[in-house]
Amino acid sequence: MPIIVTKIIAFLAASVVQGIPLIYGSTGEIITEKSGHLNLGIPGIMYMGGISGIIGGYLYEHYTENPIGIIAVLISLFASLFGSAIMALIYSFLTVTLRANQNVTGLALTIFGVGVGNFFGGSLLKFFGETGSIYLAATSAAYRTTIPFLSKIPVVGTLLFSYGFLAYLAIIIALLASWFLNKTRYGLALRAVGESPATADAAGVNVTAYKYLATLIGGMIAGLGGLYFVMDSTGGGWTNGGFGDKGWLAIAIVIFALWKPKNSILCSLIFGGLYILCVYIPGLSAPMKEIIKMMPYLVTVAVLIFISIRNKRENMPPASLGTSYFREER
Amino acid sequence: MMAKQNKIHEPPFHIVKRPAIAGWKSVLIRAIAIIAALGVSSLVLLILTKKSPLEAMKLVYEASFGVYNKSIDKGFFAQIFTGRKFWAMLQELCMLLVIALAVTPAFKMKYWNLGAQGQVLFGGLCSVAVMFYLNNGFWATHKWLVLVLMLIAAVVGGVIWAVIPALFKARWNTNESLFTLMMNYIAIQLVSCMINVWVPNGSQVMGVVNQNSKIGWMPAMVFPDAWGMHPSAKNYFFNILIVLCLTVVMFVYLRYSKHGYELSVVGESVNTANYIGINVKKVIIRTLVFSGLLCGVSGFLLVSGTDHSITTGLDRGYGFTAIIVAWLAKFNPLMMILTSFLIVFLGKGASDIAMNMGFNESVGDIITGIIIFFIIGCEFFINYRIVKTHREG
């Protein structure tokens, strides 16, 4: 196989690895936004999902002689979901029940989540009197297990079957979310809550419950993106701030995907590619590399402008997005 | 069937909007929230660092005001005033404050500018470029001119970065929060790119510019020797003074100028603004020019008066914190001095405790987050009232 083909295949596979956290993040945010809540805390929730998984996996590996892969996965998965659920609950309690400003609450959540992530990421080992940095060999190996024979097929195997189970789960969740929003009664009710909570309320939909559940489930899905990043793409380690700005990109992808989880899969993969592009272009000088790294953001800006100029009605966000609902105020 | 109908499902409490609240009551509610937040924060510190709340409080205090040393022949307040910690705290407070001032007019207009970080960074980058290139010959003898050029460059940079999204917002109603957010990352990449251009050895670190000639450095204040001021007091004095002046200017601008009135009308209702003949597009762009200008000034102060260099972390992550500081102060610039003090004081304290225990300084962010959650939450009790539902019949 010529070297260029190998490189392109490696690039595409790397794009998928970079894109998966974005699929989780944007799907979670779409579900949340469909209830009328713009959760700017998604970056914090993704950090929290990552670090909670790390803590869960670490505790298991620390206290067991021979960690078993499947149990390590279950424990860290549960820990991650728990951590992001707590974050989502803080957000929904403040914005749904206490009707706080959604933008400010979201930003505070992000500051908090990134702080928790970086604190435990840097200090977890100190609590147990160890030095060095976190490395969860057994847990991460379990997460990275691929389908035995299929992944060995050249080209197709690398492109389609070389990822851990969380990658496939991301696509399944995005498709399920798409089906849920468009084909089920509950999905219809949720969209109604986001478009006009007063109307939904009058029709007998429990607005508060929908808002809580959408934020909670959306947050937990987003948290899995953080978990995938730490367990699969970085191999069970933690670098402070390593997750970077992917949470913000996930929020931006929601707009490109026009609030449709199905679209977010492709958008996320393209963004994953743009994210990693600079590594695969040969012969770049150091300053040029930094310029190429701007690509995802420049493309985001271009698409934002394009969508706003086209200004089509079906491409608009849920009508009540960003406002809190107070029944007695209608 | 009948029995089911007779049973009325009604929660025992319901929420009512308050028409207005007495001033002392709202202060009391906020005070309770802050005390509760401090309680939870010290609990978190206790769990994480095993320091008793009293000990932790002492350390938090010392992080901002320094350790009181009885053996030195100086009064309690004189020791604080001449010490390093106090001035370092003031400096951090002022840098947070000036960015908060910068985002305020835009937020009053309900324009969600999440791009303060990028505006500060790009302003700082322009400033550093001037400092980097104009460092010899003519410029060595005209240091003040370099400073002026740096300020102008920073302001132009900040304004460009702020006004691009504003133009699109005004013309096509493009989503400004995501646009400004992306501008942050574009600025970050530009900074990394320029660092690579200026420092070709690949170390990715700019290092202090003009270390010996001090061209483009904010001049130091001259205090009488007898006062025994710490050098950081001299270095940071003008930074702090400038920010305090800007605070007053912003207060007057928002409260007493026609511009300030117009932007708050646009924030309350765009329809009203159109109706009374305010040109909304013009107000949006003008306000964002002003916002960007102040972000540029922050970038200048951070480059010229603080770091004398540039990193992608020049803004110290204050871009987002500043939004919260401004919002907590209800967009009142004088109140922002208090709110930024609260955030800096507790954040510094928490980081100091953590560093002292060998943990990393991110504890500061955790504590900041907790405090903000409480203060955001308490707004509910200021705006709403919970009343017992009276059953009829």
Strand and helix map with partners:
The complex is a heterodimer of chains A (330) and B (393).
Chain A: H1 3-34, H2 42-63, H3 69-97, H4 102-127, H5 137-143, H6 156-161, H7 165-183, H8 185-195, H9 197-202, H10 207-233, H11 246-256, H12 261-280, H13 286-292, H14 295-310
Helix pairs in contact in A: 1-7, 1-10, 1-11, 1-12, 2-3, 2-4, 2-10, 2-11, 3-4, 3-5, 3-10, 5-10, 7-8, 7-10, 7-12, 11-12, 11-14
Chain B: H1 2-6, E1 13-17, H2 23-49, H3 53-65, H4 76-82, H5 84-108, H6 116-133, H7 138-141, H8 143-172, H9 176-198, H10 231-256, H11 258-268, H12 270-275, H13 280-307, H14 318-328, H15 333-356, H16 363-383, E2 384-388
Antiparallel strand pairs in B: 1-2
Write a structural description:
The complex is a heterodimer of chains A (330) and B (393). Chain A has 330 residues and is mainly α. Chain A has one domain (3-329): ABC transporter involved in vitamin B12 uptake, BtuC (Orthogonal Bundle), CATH 1.10.3470. Chain A is 72% helix and 0% strand. Chain A has helices spanning 3-34, 42-63, 69-97, 102-127, 137-143, 156-161, 165-183, 185-195, 197-202, 207-233, 246-256, 261-280, 286-292, 295-310. In chain A, helix 1 packs antiparallel against helix 12 (261-280), helix 2 (42-63) packs antiparallel against helix 3 (69-97) and helix 5 (137-143) packs across helix 10. Chain A starts with a helix and ends in a 20-residue tail after the last helix. The mean pLDDT of chain A is 88. With 393 residues, chain B is mostly helical. Chain B has a domain at 87-347: Orthogonal Bundle (ABC transporter involved in vitamin B12 uptake, BtuC), CATH 1.10.3470. Helices cover 71% and strands 3% of the residues of chain B. Chain B is built from 16 helices and 2 strands. Chain B has a two-stranded antiparallel sheet with strand order 1-2. In chain B, helix 8 (143-172) packs antiparallel against helix 13. The model of chain B has no long low-confidence stretch (mean pLDDT 85). Chains A and B meet through helix 3, helix 4, helix 11, helix 13 and helix 14 of A and strand 1, helix 9, helix 14 and helix 16 of B.
